[in-house]
Amino acid sequence: MADECDEKTCCGIRGSQCKVGSITSIDERGLMVLPKEIRDRMKIRAGDKLAIVCFEKDENICCLSLIKAEELDRMVKSMLGPVMDDALKK
């Protein structure tokens, strides 16, 4: 069951849905399998790059988020593009 995140959660991302998508394990080499259902829902294909975003609480990483690198690039450009345009006009 998905619950609305609030400030008490590690991530604290308002308006997002927090739920366990799946459980996986880490092997002795530190590798893990991203389950097919999750890959399909995120449209992740072989060769795609993923950014790992770490959320910290009390100086400990408590939550990881995976974002397709191309999506992160788009997000950064959409946030910084207007700022850079404005700075270059001055």
Account of the protein in words:
- The protein is an alpha+beta fold.
- It has one domain.
- Helix content is 31%, strand content 23%.
- The chain has helices at 36-42, 69-89; strands spanning 3-4, 17-18, 50-57, 60-68.
- The strands form two sheets. It has a two-stranded antiparallel ribbon with strand order 1-2.
- β3 and β4 form a beta hairpin.
- The termini are far apart.
- The model has no long low-confidence stretch (mean pLDDT 81).
What features would you highlight for this structure?
90 residues, 2 helices, alpha+beta
Question: Layout of helices and strands, plus pairs?
Answer:
Elements lengths: L2 E2 L12 E2 L17 H7 L7 E8 L2 E9 H21 L1
Antiparallel strand pairs: 1-2, 3-4
Give the uncertain stretches in residue-range form: none
- Fraction in beta strands: 15-25%
Number of helices: 2
Q: Which bin fits the share of residues in helices?
A: 25-40%
The backbone outline, from C-alpha atoms, is extended
Please trace the helix and strand order, writing H or E for each element. Answer: EEHEEH
State the end-to-end distance. 50 Å
Rg calc: 17 Å
Q: In short, what is this structure?
A:
By secondary structure, the protein is an alpha+beta fold. It is built from 2 helices and 4 strands, in the order ββαββα.
